[in-house]
Design goal:
CATH superfamily of the largest domain in chain A: Reverse transcriptase/Diguanylate cyclase domain
Number of helices of chain B: 6
Shape of chain B: elongated
Largest sheet of chain A: 5 strands, mixed
Strand order of the largest sheet of chain A: 5-6-1-7-8
Strand content of chain A: 15-25%
Helix content of chain A: 40-55%
CATH class of the largest domain in chain A: Alpha Beta
Number of domains of chain A: 3
Structural class of chain A: alpha+beta
Helix content of chain B: 10-25%
Largest interface: A-B, 11 and 25 residues
Distance between the termini of chain A: 59 Å
CATH class of the largest domain in chain B: Alpha Beta
Radius of gyration of chain B: 26 Å
Oligomer: heterodimer
Number of strands of chain A: 12
C-alpha cells in the first residue's frame, strides 16, 4: 500500500499576482485573456470571482459579462514558473520522490515515511504551513493510496484543505461524488454518461467492468478502475535531460549575414546552458525551415565540447551545406545532445582551445553574477 | 617463367609483409603484394601508403618478372598448405598458376605499374640500435600517444636525437612519457615523429638483432635483418614538451609500485565512470587513496605505507592514467614528485640506471571541494 500526496496550489496564478501586487487581496481577480478584445479564456480566478459563477477555462467574454467589475490580468508567466520551482524545492526537502504534474500540482510519494514524519495529517498541515510561511502561497493536499484518489482528495476541500482517504475507504469515499470528479471525465464523456443514467460514481461501480470496456474501450476500463478507488501508484520522475535546443522564427529572411548572426546568438545560448550544467556535448543538430515550410535537419558528432566557437563553426558549416535553395528562410535552430560531464582533467600544453576554456569559465562566472547579456563573445 | 619455393619459407616471408596490407582502402591495388623477381631473388613488398614492408628470399630463376598478386588470398592459401614444394608458373597471360603435389590454384594477377613506389630513404646517416633496446623504448612510451586526430604531431612518438642520448617521447596532453637511451648519442639535435601505426607494426617485428635506422625529411627506414620497413613521418612540429616538465617538484612520495597498482585497480571499480577520478591524500608517511561513484552511491578508501615527509596534500588523478603509468615503470619502487594539486606530477622509477632514463609526467584532475 502506497502513500501518495497530491498538492494543489489554490488559485495559483491569482495567488502569485497577489504576492506581486498585494492590493489585489480580497478583490475578484481573473487571470487570462483580454476581455476588451473578447479573446481567450479564464486561466485562473480568485474565490471572490467564483462567487459570480466564474470558473477556469470559461471564455473571457462570458466572465466579463458575469463579473464586469473584476480585475482582469494578463498574467506573468515567468513569475509563475519561478514560484512553481520554489514550491518544488521546498517539497524536495521532505519528499523522497516528487513529480511535477503541472505548474501548480505536485505528487509526492511518502510510502514508508510514516515512521519519520508521524501523523500524515499533521505532516500535511506542516507542509501547508511551510509553503505559506516561505512563499505566501495557499495550497490543498490530498492523501491517498494512489495518484487518482489523492488528486480527487486535494480537490474536494479547497482552499487550504487537507483530505486523507484512509486505505480501504476509497470506494466509499468516491461513491456519492458526481462522475465528473474523476480526472479525465470531460464534457463529452459526461454527457454520454448522463445519457446512460450514470450521475454519481457509485452508479459506475454498480455496473460490470465489461460494460465500460464495451462502451469506451481502454478508457472505459480505466474509468471503472478509478471509480473503484484504484489508480496509478507510481510517480513519473523527471527524466534526465537529453538535449538542449534553441530556435528562432523570422519573417522570411534572405540575408546570409543575418542568419549567421542569429545562429551565433542561438549557439551562445545553448552553450551557456551547457556550461551552466557542467556538461560537454558531442552531437550538434541544426534545423533550417524555408518560407514554404520545407524543413531540413542535419547533425554532426564531434569531440565533446562546450566552446561556442567550435559548436558554431560546425553548425554554420552544416547550415551552409543544407541551405541550397534560393528561398527565404523562416526558422533556424540548434540542438546539442550526447552529453558528458565536463572533465576537470588538467592539461599539459596551453593550446588555444585550452586557453579558451579558462576564458569560458570566466564568462560563466560573470554571467552567473550579472546576467547573460553583460558579456558577449565576439564572432 | 617458372620457379619453386618451399611453402613454409614463403609463408614466413609473407607473414612479415602482410601487416602493411591495409584491410580497408579506397585503392584496391594496395590489397596486393608486389612480387619482384630479379637476379635469382624474389622481393615481396606491400604498402598502405603510410608504411611499407619489403623482404626477400632466394629462388632459382633466371628470368626477371614483376607482378601484383591479391595478398590475402595468396597468404591464406600458402598458410593452409602445410609443408610442401610449390611451383609458381606465370606464363599463362594474366594468371599465376600455383601447383602442389595434389592441387592446382590459379590466381589472377595485375600489372605492377599501378603499384605505388616505396619511397627510397637515403643511407647517408645510419643509426644502429639493438632490437630489444628499441622495443623497450617503444613499449615504455607508445601507450601515451594521443588517439585524437586534432593534433597530428601527438598521435605519433617523437624520436629525438641529442648529444646525451636518443629520446623517445609520447604525450596526449594529459600525460607524457620521456625515455632516453643514453647509448645512442648524436652530435646534432634532430626530431622525427613516427606515426602510431608504424610504431605498433615495428614493435611486433623487433627481436634481439640489431636494427639500422635511416632517416630523411619525410620518411624513416628500419632495416631488420632481411626486412626493410619504411614509414612516412608526421610532418608537424612536436609540442615544446621540455617547457612543461617542472623543475621544482620538491615534495617526493616513495611508494611500492605493485602495492599502489593493486590499490588503483580496486579504485577503478569505485571511481565514477565519467571522471575516473581517484584522490591521493598524502601526509606524513601515509598515502590514503580514495574514490567514489556518486551516481551509484559507492565509495572506497585504502591506506598505503609510503615515504613522504613534505607538507600534506590532496591531489586527484584519473585512475586509468595512473594504472597505465604504473604498468610502464619497471622498478619495485616509484617516486611521485609533486608540487601542488593543480600542477604536473613527475613519476619516476626510484632506481637510477646508467644507460637509460625514464620519466613520466601526469596532469592531475582538479578536485571539487
Amino acid at each position: 500500500m502506497r502513500t501518495i500526496f497530491h498538492l494543489d496550489l489554490d488559485t495559483f496564478f491569482v495567488s502569485v499576482e497577489r504576492i506581486l501586487d498585494p492590493s489585489l487581496k480580497g478583490k475578484p481577480v481573473i487571470v487570462g485573456g483580454d476581455p476588451k478584445y473578447g479573446r481567450g479564456v479564464v486561466a485562473a480566478c480568485s474565490y471572490e470571482a467564483r462567487e459570480f459563477g466564474l470558473h477556469s477555462a470559461m471564455p473571457i467574454r462570458t466572465a466579463y459579462r458575469l463579473c464586469p467589475h473584476g480585475v482582469y490580468i494578463h498574467g506573468s508567466h515567468g513569475e509563475y514558473s519561478y514560484f512553481s520551482k520554489a514550491v518544488k524545492n521546498i517539497l524536495k526537502q521532505y519528499a523522497p520522490v516528487v513529480e511535477k504534474a503541472s505548474i501548480d500540482e505536485f505528487y509526492m510519494d511518502f510510502t514508508g515515511c510514516q515512521n519519520v514524519y508521524g501523523s500524515l495529517f499533521a505532516f500535511a498541515s506542516f507542509l501547508q504551513k511551510e509553503i505559506w510561511d516561505e512563499l505566501s502561497l495557499p495550497c490543498s493536499i490530498g492523501i491517498g493510496s494512489n495518484k487518482t484518489i489523492a488528486k480527487i482528495g486535494s480537490d474536494c476541500m479547497k482552499p487550504k484543505g487537507i483530505t486523507y482517504i484512509m486505505p480501504g475507504m476509497e470506494k466509499d469515499f468516491l461513491a456519492p461524488m458526481p462522475v465528473e470528479t474523476i480526472p479525465g471525465v470531460g464534457k463529452v464523456t459526461l454527457k454520454d454518461l448522463h445519457s446512460k443514467g450514470i450521475y454519481r460514481i457509485c452508479d459506475i461501480t454498480k455496473l460490470p467492468q465489461d460494460y465500460f470496456a464495451a462502451a469506451y474501450g481502454k478508457y472505459g476500463i480505466d474509468l471503472y478502475r478509478k471509480a473503484n478507488g484504484s489508480g496509478s501508484e507510481y510517480l513519473t520522475v523527471e527524466r534526465e535531460q537529453k538535449s538542449i535546443s534553441h530556435e528562432k522564427t523570422f519573417k522570411d529572411v534572405t540575408s546570409k549575414q543575418f542568419l549567421k548572426n542569429k545562429l551565433f546568438e542561438l549557439t551562445g545560448k545553448v552553450c551557456q546552458e551547457l556550461r551552466d550544467k557542467g556538461w560537454q556535448a558531442s552531437t550538434i543538430n541544426i534545423k533550417l525551415r524555408y518560407s514554404d515550410f520545407q524543413t531540413l535537419t542535419r547533425s554532426k558528432t564531434i569531440k565533446p565540447t562546450d566552446d561556442d566557437r567550435i559548436v558554431f563553426d560546425a553548425a554554420w558549416d552544416m547550415m551552409m551545406k543544407a541551405h541550397t535553395r534560393r528561398v527565404a528562410v523562416r526558422l533556424i535552430g540548434i540542438k546539442l545532445s550526447k552529453f558528458k560531464e565536463y572533465s576537470e582533467q588538467q592539461e599539459l600544453f596551453e593550446f588555444e582551445e585550452i586557453k579558451r576554456r579558462g576564458m569560458l569559465r570566466a564568462i560563466n562566472i560573470i554571467r552567473a553574477q550579472y546576467g547573460y547579456d553583460k558579456i558577449q563573445i565576439g564572432h | 617463367m617458372e620457379f619453386k619455393v618451399n611453402s613454409k619459407v614463403l609463408e614466413k616471408l609473407l607473414s612479415k609483409i602482410i601487416p602493411a596490407v591495409p584491410t580497408r582502402t579506397p585503392m584496391p591495388i594496395l590489397e596486393n603484394f608486389l612480387f619482384d623477381i630479379k637476379d635469382g631473388a624474389m622481393y615481396v613488398s606491400a604498402t598502405d601508403l603510410e608504411i611499407a614492408l619489403r623482404s626477400s628470399i632466394n629462388i632459382a630463376s633466371d628470368e626477371n618478372l614483376k607482378m601484383v598478386i591479391p595478398a590475402r588470398l595468396l597468404y591464406d592459401i600458402i598458410r593452409s598448405l602445410g609443408e610442401t614444394q610449390i611451383t609458381f608458373n606465370a606464363d599463362g597471360g594474366s594468371k599465376l598458376k600455383i601447383t602442389t603435389d595434389t592441387g592446382v590454384y590459379n590466381i589472377g594477377y595485375s600489372s605492377y605499374e599501378d603499384f605505388p613506389e616505396i619511397p627510397a630513404v637515403s643511407k647517408d646517416k645510419e643509426i644502429v640500435i639493438n632490437g630489444l633496446d628499441l622495443k623497450k623504448a617503444i613499449d615504455q612510451t607508445s601507450f601515451a600517444m594521443s588517439k585524437e586526430d586534432m593534433r597530428p604531431a601527438m598521435t605519433g612518438t617523437l624520436f629525438e636525437f641529442t648529444p646525451d642520448g636518443l629520446r623517445f617521447v609520447a604525450t596526449d596532453g594529459h600525460r607524457l612519457v620521456k625515455y632516453i637511451n643514453k647509448n645512442i648519442k648524436s652530435a646534432t639535435e634532430e626530431q622525427y615523429i613516427i606515426p602510431e601505426r608504424a610504431i605498433s607494426v615495428l614493435s611486433k617485428l623487433l627481436d634481439d638483432a640489431d636494427v639500422k635506422i635511416y632517416l630523411s625529411k619525410s620518411n624513416v627506414s628500419f632495416h631488420l635483418g632481411d626486412i626493410e620497413f619504411v614509414s612516412r613521418l608526421i610532418a608537424e612540429k612536436y609540442p615544446a614538451y621540455s617547457s612543461v616538465i617542472p623543475l621544482e617538484n620538491e615534495n617526493k612520495l616513495f611508494v611500492n609500485r605493485d602495492v599502489l597498482n593493486s590499490t588503483i585497480k580496486r579504485m577503478m571499480l569505485f571511481s565514477s565512470s565519467s571522471s575516473k577520478q581517484v584522490k591521493f591524500s598524502i601526509s606524513n608517511n601515509n598515502l590514503e587513496v580514495s574514490a567514489e561513484d556518486i551516481d551509484h552511491g559507492s565509495d572506497a578508501v585504502e591506506n598505503i605505507e609510503c615515504k613522504y615527509d613534505a607538507e600534506a596534500m590532496d591531489i586527484g588523478f584519473n585512475t586509468a592514467y595512473v594504472n597505465d603509468i604504473l604498468n610502464h615503470v619497471d622498478d619495485e619502487s616509484v617516486v611521485f614528485k609533486l608540487h601542488s594539486p593543480t600542477k604536473a606530477c613527475i613519476i619516476e622509477p626510484e632506481t637510477v640506471k646508467e644507460t637509460e632514463e625514464l620519466m613520466l609526467l601526469l596532469m592531475p584532475v582538479r578536485l571539487n571541494n
